[in-house]
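Hey, I'm writing a tutorial for new members on how sequence and structure tokens pair up, and I'd like a real worked example in the thread rather than a made-up one. If someone can provide the structure for the chain below, I'll link this post from the tutorial.
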Amino acid sequence: MKKRDKKASSVWLVMLFIFLLPGGFFILCGMLLLEPLRYIRLRRSRYRRDFPARYKFPCETHPDSLPYGIIKEKKLPIDYRKHPRNDEMCGYFICGNTALLFSEPFIYVKEQDCWLTDFEYAELFGGDTDTDPTSADGVPYDVESEALEDLHSSFPDMHCDHVIWFVRSDKIKNAHARDLLAGRPGVVMYTKQTLADTLRNCIQDQN
């Protein structure tokens, strides 16, 4: 009986592979056909012109590319510091004594209907979403202090004492979850179309 079960399982695996193979082939072909266009668009971006990097397949837009391009195009008084240890990680946008971050280190916990930073999630839950975040035994990480510590250790000449996280709202499909995150202190919501005005408002608030 066990031999028959193993044989049946092997047959199903072979059939599944046969059915999935054409789909995977077409996806790969699509990626190969679109890759030159993506590469050209990437090379034309202001970020890659100022910070060239070795080509990797598939080529992906750097997470700082959009805000960096807008800041340069609009000539906004915001300084940019590339991450010193990893070319693919988000860098730091500096406005006065405030660091503007686009790393979006937030996790929506549906069971608890709340947003946590990835630091808080690891500290409070440890992967267990049944834990009540309001009655945790441990002290959660202060994500702002963590970010400032990383900034100051990387750039000793920077003297920031505040952090603002920019989160792209149109990527959050759940309207209720979007509203919850928008109400979190230190979070600014934006869309691709509104980012320039959002950055201008942030500059005005710092002055």
